[in-house]
Amino acid sequence: MAVMAWNVRGLGQQETVRALKNMIFKFKPRVVFLSETKQKKRYLEKIRMKMKMHNSFYVEPIGKAGGLALWWTNDTSVNVLNHGRNLIDTRLSINGEEEWFGTFIYGPPYDAEKQHFWESLINLLSNMHEKWCIMGDSNIVARADEKVGGAPFDFSRAKWFYDVINKCGLLEIPTKGGTFTWSNQRSQEDAILEKLDRVLSSLEWNKLFPKALACLDVAIASDHAPIILLLQGLNKKGRRDFKFESKWLLEEECAREVTEGWKPVQYADSNNMFGRKMKRTRLKLSKWSKVKYGKNKKVADELINKIKALEGKPLSFTEAKEVKELKKELDKTDQHDM
């Protein structure tokens, strides 16, 4: 089970929509939180339906600034308790399991608003001694080692963040996949890298999900990396359930595989003939699709590994250009065939 948060920095470009669709396909999150959408509800609803997310809640942007979107699947129950320009506070349950509180945040980017936001968050949680999780773009660098380049680390800003940590008794969920979640996407001495996106939880929430782990995906079409909360941790890969893809119907090879799989089965019990045909057809389609489309997953994985090997440090002009080209190539890779 996964929950995803991403500062998309505007959801008006097709590149961003493709990247979002690929991530939803890859991680299959039950809840998706998007900040800085910069788009009205009417447009975002069209995108949501393309993503096959079933339910939604929005905080409209002011002009072209800000904007929040929360999407969730039908097997998830979400009750929005509070909302504003910088957060959506919910009580939720996934797959009918035990309820917990989830607060999805987009921390104010301006110093004049930061202190008020974090203090209001403390007030929101002051009476909440329950299973609670906060997730999203904090817009706060908490430690000196969470920043490279730019102005020196400012502890006075981090203090607002630590006030929430200490007064609300929170833990930070471990994050895999990189140290920094935001970059100004410049090279050499102008590069700035910061950890702004994170997941925090109460002790009671941590007891409910003791294996919970946050991971970062590659930042495509935004200066922020998406953060994915894996509630059950990294599970070992088991046998993948068979799923027929409608796009296969456009392929002549698919029709041939079905014809071959549906041929009468010799020596089969007539009462079980249908089941034998179904099993053989499923196996043939699985093998065919793996051969035809599996190369896309291999290509995407190789590109992601190359990008991650370069990111996470100030880059030379040549390296920055290489990362940009690799991301363009990854964006063009049809990961929905994986």
From TrEMBL:
Residues 4-224 form the Endonuclease/exonuclease/phosphatase domain. Pfam families: Exo_endo_phos. It comes from the Eukaryota. Coiled coil: none annotated. This is Endonuclease/exonuclease/phosphatase domain-containing protein.
